[in-house]
Design goal:
The protein is of the alpha/beta class and 266 residues long. It is built from nine helices and eleven strands. It has helices at residues 3-11, 28-39, 52-61, 66-75, 95-104, 138-144, 199-211, 215-219, 242-258; strands at residues 16-20, 46-49, 83-84, 90-93, 117-123, 128-132, 149-151, 154-156, 159-163, 181-185, 224-226. The longest helix is centred in the last third of the chain and has 17 residues, at 242-258. Mean pLDDT is 86; it is low at 3-8, 75-79 and 81-87.
């Protein structure tokens, strides 16, 4: 390799991947972290997200600015758009949430997004995670965010799908071979809960604990790992605190980035 080629290689911008965990209402924190990244000149080249991370990720990849993302998620009450359902397959229906996302998304297929995007959902029939990055977009994002028992599952091609976090709540797998740097954002720090009253609270807590089992191992795959510990104070369905959750994500992102050599991500 000649000197010019070596110089160009050194100057090549690193390809940065961003992994966004699930976390229901805690997903507001993803928007805050993305804002902090951008203030440090870091713009991910590819995103892999699951559940709430898939919703935040797809809006980013669709070209929305962080303040616009927050408006869609908070001001239009995206996470409030759940309605009671007859408890056959789930306690809540996400039909209205799907309607809001359908209106917001300009891209209808993965290939139409401005930034490459992956999301994953759990195929209950096969008992495996499936990672999507091609074809029709909305239904796969909805499947990724369907917390079992709380929400009715999504049926695609004769298979039953639920939240991708059941099998993989930190989807590094589909992108790690295709990027130079990985930034991971995990919005489900575990901590003791004093009271567990009601079916939804118990189901929420059970899901929360189960999806965190491998996070320490998965975090080792990241060049930068951001986990806002203060999110322990917010429930997975605590949508009324969306702005505060966003601020927790932003503050933690800024705290971590101030201690990081951000040049290697730009």
């Amino acid at each position: 390799m000649d000197l010019l080629a070596k110089f160009k290689q050194k100057k090549r911008k690193p390809k940065v991947g961003l992994v966004l965990s699930g976390g229901a209402a805690r997903g507001f924190a993803h928007v805050g972290v993305i804002e902090a990244l951008q203030e440090h000149g870091i713009y991910p080249d590819i995103i892999s997200g699951v559940s709430a991370g898939a919703i935040a990720g797809v809006l980013y990849c669709d070209g929305y600015k962080t303040h616009e993302m927050l408006e869609i998620i908070k001001d239009r009450s995206l996470f409030r758009y759940v309605t009671p359902a007859i408890p056959k397959n789930g306690l809540l229906s996400m039909d209205n949430m799907q309607k809001v996302l359908n209106e917001a998304l300009r891209a209808k297929r993965f290939e139409e997004l401005e930034t490459p995007f992956y999301c994953n959902a759990t195929n209950l029939n096969k008992g495996t995670a499936e990672y999507f990055h091609k074809g029709e977009l909305l239904q796969k994002v909805m499947a990724s965010a369907t917390i079992p028992m709380l929400f009715k599952p999504v049926i695609m091609n004769g298979y039953t799908y639920v939240d991708g976090g059941v099998v993989d709540n930190f989807p590094v797998k589909p992108i790690w071979k295709n990027v130079d740097r990985i930034i991971g954002v995990h919005v489900n720090p575990t901590g003791e809960v004093k009271e567990l009253k009601g079916l939804i609270k118990i189901a929420e807590r059970s899901f929360h604990v189960s999806v965190n089992r491998d996070i320490e191992m998965m975090a080792k795959n990241c060049d930068l790992f951001i986990q806002p510990e203060k999110l322990r104070d917010f429930g997975l369905l605590n949508v009324s605190e969306g702005r505060k959750i966003y601020e927790v994500g932003y503050e933690k992102g800024m705290e971590v980035l101030k201690k990081t050599n951000t040049k290697k991500f730009r």
